[in-house]
Write a structure and sequence with these properties.
Helices cover about 35% and strands about 20% of the residues. Strand 16 and strand 17 form a beta hairpin. The chain is α+β, with helices and mostly antiparallel strands. The two termini are about 30 Å apart. Helix 8 packs across helix 10 and helix 11 packs antiparallel against helix 12. The protein has 4 domains: about 70 residues, Uridine Diphospho-n-acetylenolpyruvylglucosamine Reductase, domain 2 (2-Layer Sandwich); about 120 residues, Uridine Diphospho-n-acetylenolpyruvylglucosamine Reductase, domain 3, CATH 3.30.465.10; about 110 residues, Alpha-Beta Plaits; about 120 residues, Alpha-Beta Plaits (2-Layer Sandwich), CATH 3.30.70.2740. Strands 14-11-13-12-16-17-15 form a 7-stranded antiparallel β-sheet, sandwiched between helices. Bound molecules: flavin-adenine dinucleotide. The site of flavin-adenine dinucleotide has 36 residues, from strand 2, helix 4 and strand 9.
Length: about 450
């Protein structure tokens, strides 16, 4: 086993998308499951922490070695081992890039729906460990709904294997879902068995402009109550619209203060009917509605959504990006209260995201070089979490807890739950070497 210790490598593996930096002692690039076992053995023997890492695109410093140790990169284990069309499953190594699996499945007329916006660079291992979701979660669910089995190396160097291509399995404890969202704290996922579904026949993408964000929020509630389940409903508030306008040459009328992107997919005839109902609901809420005529227009609409994240830096140099999730019925109230919190603390708050499932990306914009502003931003973040929990929501809908949200866990999670999490971790990881300091664990 080779441990890379050159600073040119360790520095590159010291951070994720948060920009939080803790330099590892070394980096091991696993190419096979045997390499993973060797790395775990080495860390047990030498009392080192081991931090599994996919693409490092996480938003909670999940793969950052906050308590030191060795990074175990899975990026070279990137083979799609099987697309089994008869059983409609895929077997993949953990380093497979999400979009590569989607493209591969589509070439067999099959569909792997989980679509984090990072899908062109995040890995399946990282998606499983974070239970990643995306716009399509509203209809198709999140990564958890597709993980049928995993192989993983745990902290005794044993291999746990639940990858059976069966639809039903009630043999013993169900270990698979424990690994989903486990954030690298229970072991290293070395293989994943994923469910695939038939590729939808047709999709229609609708762009609707509202005079205010609350009408947009109400439209989401009305659509969800109409019996239609769109494959995506994304919301943008005034601040995100203005950023996108500045960043890209996109035609959004000046009077618009709320945008919804709605996509419907399924059988051709049904999709047409449902799109007409959705357009009517939007218009009842005083929206202007546009429908993508072809794939190019559809892509242009989605580009508006994807442009938000990078364009936010026009507002302020530092972004604290939270991904709270509230019950759908509470979306209008949540949007209103988050924007009020921003005003109260004098820090811009930008809301956008997967409104259809209540997963709102709340971005508190600040400047890390300005300590007064940072303090205000931190207070705003805490109040956003408290408000979310008051509204019956949760601290994270998709990015996980990792390092950054660990301190906020007591707002939502009771001591008894945390104690149980710690005992579960101990069963998988008796030496406490896997990714310590994350998810409220020690
Ligand atoms: C621009 C951008 C957009 C994003 N959009 C979304 C979105 O829409 N939805 C969403 O859910 N997330 C999103 N994310 C966050 C991120 O992409 C996801 O959390 C993703 O699942 C992380 O995958 P990764 O391969 O980069 O994992 P990493 O960041 O490398 O690791 C994340 C966690 O998984 C663990 N881990 C990684 N591989 C393994 C393994 N093989 N075994 C055990 N543990 C492992 C790590 O220890 C760590 O705790 C976005 C990020 C960016 C930068």
């Amino acid at each position: 086993m080779k441990i890379e210790k050159s600073p040119s490598i360790t520095k590159c593996y010291s951070f994720d998308a948060t920009g939080i930096v803790f330099e590892p002692e070394g980096v091991v690039f696993a190419e096979t499951e045997k390499d993973i076992i060797e790395a775990v053995e080495y860390c047990i023997k030498n009392k080192k922490n081991i931090i599994p890492r996919g693409a490092g695109s996480g938003f909670t410093a999940g793969c950052v070695p906050v308590k030191g140790g060795i990074i175990l990169s899975l990026e070279k284990m990137d083979k799609i081992l099987d697309i089994d069309t008869k059983n409609m499953v895929a077997v993949v190594e953990p380093g497979v890039i999400t979009a590569n699996l989607q493209r591969s499945a589509e070439s067999f007329n099959l569909y792997y729906p989980p679509d984090p916006s990072s899908l062109e660079f995040s890995t399946i291992g990282g998606n499983v460990a974070e239970n990643a979701g995306g716009p399509k979660a509203i209809k198709y669910g999140v990564t958890a709904n597709y993980v049928m089995g995993i192989r993983a190396v745990i902290g005794t160097t044993e291999i746990i294997d639940t990858t059976r291509k069966v639809k039903k399995n009630v043999v013993g404890y169900n270990i698979t879902p424990l690994f989903v969202g486990s954030e690298g704290t229970l072991g290293v996922i070395s293989r994943v068995l994923l469910r695939l579904i038939p590729l939808p026949e047709e999709r229609i993408t609708i762009l609707s402009f509202f005079k205010d964000i609350y009408q947009a929020g109400q439209t989401v509630v009305d659509i969800m109550n109409s019996g239609i389940v769109p494959s995506a409903i994304e919301i943008m508030d005034i601040a995100s619209i203005e950023c996108v306008r500045r960043f890209k040459n996109i035609d959004i009328p000046k009077s618009v203060e709320g945008v919804l992107i709605i996509e419907i997919d399924g059988k051709k005839e049904e999709v047409k009917k449902e799109a007409n109902i959705v357009k009517k609901i939007c218009r009842n809420n005083k929206a202007t509605v546009k429908v993508a005529k072809d794939e190019k227009e559809r892509e242009n609409i989605w580009q508006i959504r994807r442009a938000i994240s990078p364009s936010l830096f026009h507002i302020a140099p530092t972004k604290i990006n939270e991904d709270v999730c509230v019950p759908v019925s509470e979306i209008p109230k949540a949007l209103k209260r988050f924007l009020e919190i921003g005003k109260k603390y004098g820090v811009p708050v930008v809301c956008f995201g997967h409104a259809g499932d209540g997963n709102i990306h709340v971005n508190v914009m600040t400047d890390e070089k300005n300590s007064t502003l940072m303090e205000k931003a931190k207070l705003a973040v805490r109040e956003i979490f408290i408000t979310t929990v008051e509204l019956g929501g949760v601290l994270s809908g998709e990015h996980g807890i990792g390092y950054t949200k660990s301190k906020f866990l007591p707002i939502q999670t009771k001591k008894a739950d945390l104690h149980l999490w710690r005992r579960i971790k101990k069963a998988f990881d008796p030496e406490n070497i896997f990714n310590p300091g994350k998810m409220g664990l020690i």
